[in-house]
Amino acid sequence: MTGARGLAAVKDAALAAFVALVLAVPLVGFEAVDRGPQGSGLQTRFTLVAIGVGAVFAARLLLTALRSLAPVFARRERAAAPAWLGGKGALVAAALLVLFAVVLPVLPFSSRYLVDLATTVLIYIMLGWGLNVVVGLAGLLDLGYVAFYAVGAYSFALIARWLGLSFWEALPVSGLLAATFGVVLGFPVLRLRGDYLAIVTLGFGEMVRIVLLNWTDVTGGPNGIAGVPRPSLAGFPSSPQQRIVFLYYVILALALATNLFTLRLRRLPVGRAWEALREDEIACRALGIDPTKVKLSAFAIGAMLGGFAGAFFATRQGFISPESFTFQESATILAIVVLGGMGSQMGVVLAAVALVCLPEFGRVFAEFRMLLFGGAMVTIMVWRPRGFLARRAPSIRLGAAGAA
Amino acid sequence: MAYFLQQLINGVTLGAVYGLIAIGYTMVYGIIGMINFAHGEVYMIGAFVSLITFLAMSALGIGSVPLALVLMLLSAMAFTAVYGWTIERVAYRPLRGSYRLAPLISAIGMSIFLQNYVQLAQGARVKSLAPVVKGGFKLMQQDGFVVQISYLQIAIMVLTLALMAGFTVVISATPFGRAQRACEQDMTMAALLGIDVDRTISLTFVIGAALAAVAGMMVTLYYGVIDFFIGFLAGVKAFTAAVLGGIGSLPGAMLGGLLIGLIEAFWSGYFSTEYKDVSVFGVLVLVLIFRPTGLLGRPEVEKV
Question: How many structural domains comprise chain A?
Answer without folding.
Answer: 2
